[in-house]
Specification:
Number of domains: 2
Helix content: 40-55%
Shape: globular
CATH topology of the largest domain: Rossmann fold
Radius of gyration: 19 Å
Order of helices and strands: EHEEHEHEHEHHEHEHEHHHH
CATH architecture of the largest domain: 3-Layer(aba) Sandwich
Number of helices: 12
Largest sheet: 7 strands, parallel
Number of strands: 9
Strand content: 15-25%
Strand order of the largest sheet: 3-2-1-4-5-6-8
CATH class of the largest domain: Alpha Beta
CATH superfamily of the largest domain: NAD(P)-binding Rossmann-like Domain
Structural class: alpha/beta
């Protein structure tokens, strides 16, 4: 079986490639990337593929049996770009597509959800065999703010007491590898999230414990948090989006206790303490 991974040089894609190599060393892997000259370290066959280049995608997918469609990072263009990949996969004779969607994409209040839901519908209507991985929040979405929190003396956000069932990016990557390697997952949709949820106050407390510094959590109104993010240099529209996701988290949008992720990868998901330690070491 020949397996291809879109966005293979990205943070998730690299982890998926590594996970497949561990689980199936003999599998033939193809990394689909925009710039093959910058991805030689992946150690697999490289093919140029751009979500916006329909013709190029068809050529890149020739001979592929299973395809992991990692969602594009271009918010607002995703549905169209993903449709390009799905159409190319169908034209090239790909047998199954695994797609990284969003937790409860069909009902989530997150502004990210509609494009994922549209992609799921496109995939289901394509006639291709599919597996949908509805990924919850990455722990790195929040632990990535640790250096700034240490420098500023506080962890800021707008999630209130909302519980976030995040898992490490590597956990989701392993789930993708499992789904790609076993056709028994065809036709299934999985709601994936971490085993244990945390509030941002609890994250700040864990950071304080491990760093030896007192780092409180400071909850801000949505507009103030967006302004703070913009002040850190984020584009205004993206800052507003991030703040809105925190507010949605406060209302339960990122909480899940189904433990489908740990069952899929056959081990517990990465605990928060380990995710924090990974940043501090």
């Amino acid at each position: 079986m020949t397996i291809a991974v879109t966005g293979a040089s990205g943070q998730l894609g690299r982890l998926v490639i590594a996970a497949i190599k561990r689980r199936a060393p003999a599998a033939r892997l193809v990394a689909l990337v925009r710039s093959p000259d910058k991805a030689g370290d992946l150690g697999v066959e490289l093919r140029r593929a751009d979500y916006d280049d329909a013709e190029g995608l068809r050529a890149a997918l020739v001979g592929i049996d299973a395809l992991l469609l990692i969602s594009s990072n271009e918010i607002g263009k995703r549905a169209r770009q993903h449709a390009n990949v799905i159409a190319a996969a169908r034209a090239a004779g790909v047998k199954r597509v695994v797609y990284t969607s969003l937790l409860r994409a069909d009902s989530s209040p997150l502004s990210l959800a509609p494009e994922h839901a549209e992609t799921e519908s496109t995939l289901k209507a394509s006639g291709l065999s599919f597996t949908i991985l509805r990924n919850g929040w990455y722990a790195e979405n929040h632990t990535g703010s640790i250096p700034g929190a240490l420098a500023g003396g506080a962890f800021v956000g707008a999630a209130g007491e909302g519980r976030i069932a995040a898992a490490a990016r590597a956990d989701y990557a392993e789930a993708a590898a499992v789904a790609l390697l076993d056709e028994a997952h065809a036709g299934k949709t999985y709601e994936l999230a971490g085993d244990s949820a945390f509030t941002l106050a609890e994250l700040a407390a864990e950071l304080s414990r491990q760093s030896g510094k007192t780092i409180p959590y400071r909850n801000l109104p949505e507009a103030d948090y967006a302004a703070a993010l913009a002040g850190f240099g984020l584009p205004e529209a993206f800052a507003k989006a991030i703040a809105s996701w925190d507010v949605a988290a406060a209302r339960g949008a990122l909480f899940d206790e189904g433990r489908q992720l740990s069952r899929l990868i056959d081990r517990p998901t990465t605990p928060l303490a380990r995710s924090v330690a990974a940043v501090l070491t």
